[in-house]
Amino acid sequence: MNKFRSKIFAFLLIPCITFTSCDDETIETVLNVVDEILNIFGFNMENEDVEDQETADDESDAVITDTKVSWEAKCPPIGNQGSYGTCVAWATAYGMKTTLNVIDGTWSSASSASHQCSPIDLWHLIPTSGKSTKCNGSNFEPALQAMIDNGVATMSEVPFTQNKMTCDNVTGKGSSNKLGQFRIVAYSAEMSNNGKAYGMNVTNIKYYLKEGPLVIGAQLGNRFMNWKGSNVITYDDKTYNGQHAYHAMTLVGYDDSKNAFRVRNSWGADDWGDNGSIWVDYDFFVKQFCFGVWSASNKAASTSSASLKSASAKDIKVAVLSDVAETSTLRTVTYTITNNSSSAISTDNYPISYILFKAKHFAERYIVMDKAESKTIKAGETVTLSHSYEIPAEASDGKYFLALIADPTNEIGDRNRDDNFFYVTSENGLPLLMLQNTLSGVPQNISEVRSLVCASNKNAYRNTEIEASLRKAKK
To answer: For the chain, which has fewer Cβ within 10 Å, the N-terminal or C-terminal residue?
Structure first.
């Protein structure tokens, strides 16, 4: 059985901000850090349509007009992983990364081994913590991250001879052929740590397929294992318990006339499916078949979180504890500031801003707090502060996020500004709802929303994890 059944919890966040009547210096201060955050997210403000930013962060808002999308002409020939549990490497490297290279023009086609990414090289590049021994399976994120960190060699450089693969004690070759970024865009309720699905609906998945192929994790049944022909599979059992009970494949398109997604497998083109691929019914796909969907791009975020670090001994960390309504328009945010330094630091030495910004509309954003209470925080101390604010009268109805940002331009020389940003969303990371200047959907326990990356540092963002933060809880 493949070892990538990790529990997943993620939220999508598109932070951008606009302003109320703050002084020019404060506005400029916050704008500077917003630009830096957006760069990490991979957004280029000069090229973004900020008046109508279309994303699938709230999948019900995505508008799909194409009735058919297919990337199969850009894909490599159907591969065959043989008897090994290397499906994640085949789906991510051979399937997705190869196709992305053809789509963006890096390679003219994927017909030759010199223009195909080697799943075997990627297998050896995946850290041991992200895979099992003896080629029995691996996790998705370590495989995708390995291609960001190390690239992946081609099939001509690291070929695969079926059933003659060396699984362990081999160092991957890697190359300059690197992946830029990845994110999880959907997962099932069964695989989340809070029992709630995210983005697992047809519209959301179609949205991301418009940009390129996706990688999926699927729970397979006996009908799938024995599938033949080009018909659409519409149902299956859950009794299959063999090696491929949980399996990774490449999602390459959809067709409304078939009411189905197109999935490419790595079991060869002769003895299974429709020459190695399969059509999966929309409803069956989102309700039972698929448990996770990942997208990726060759385009890297223009800034890494490493650029937010310095050699300074000073470090502060912020966290929102609650944001509650006092009246229909008046709210109180309670937050903590932790001084992880070896000496005291006063809040007078740096600005703190709390920002309300509208999902998908960069131009509508408001600073609702631009200065914290004056407080000297001792080394190692955590203080709790509160601030009352009003929902701006000009804020239109819609969906919003909140962001607390401390010392955005690094006035104190913070050694790690990754934990200077704290985002508030509704349950499951969806936007907060604003209706008639009343904000709803703020969770009672915000720590549940923010426990996203790791238990030791809930704000430890890393590149695309800012946009789709992940916490893995392996079985």
So the answer is: C
Q: Would you say residue 471 lies in a domain?
A: no
| pTM greater than the 0.70 cutoff | no
- Residues β-bridged to residue 432: 400
The residue written with tokens 């090229």 in the block is 47
Domain carrying residue 329: 24-44+304-462
Q: Is residue 15 part of a domain?
A: no
Q: Give the span between the Cα atoms of 454 and 458, in whole angstroms.
A: 6
- pLDDT tens digits for range 103-118: 999 999 999 999 999 9
What is the rounded CA–CA span in Å between residue 301 and residue 304? 7
Torsion from C-alpha of 155, 161, 164, 167, nearest 10 degrees: 20
pLDDT in tens, 167-197: 877 888 999 999 998 888 888 877 765 567 7
Percent of the chain residues topping a pLDDT of 70? 74
Q: Are 123 and 86 in contact (CB under 8 A)?
A: yes
| Token duo for residue 174 | 């890697």
Neighbours of 472 (CB within 10 A): 17
Name the residue among 50, 36, 151, 136 with its Cα closest to residue 86: 136
For 389-409, write each residue's pLDDT tens digit.
Answer: 999 888 888 888 888 888 766
Q: How many domains does the chain have?
A: 2
436 φ/ψ sector (left φ>0, alpha ψ -120 to 50, else beta): left
What are all long-range contacts of 191-194, with beta carbons under 8 Å and residues at least 24 apart?
191/5, 191/6, 191/7, 191/8, 191/217, 191/291, 191/292, 192/7, 192/8, 192/9, 193/7, 193/8, 193/9, 193/471, 193/473, 194/9, 194/428, 194/448
Over residues 315-343, mean pLDDT: 91
- Per-residue tokens: 433: 């709802």
Name the token pair of 104. 């963006």
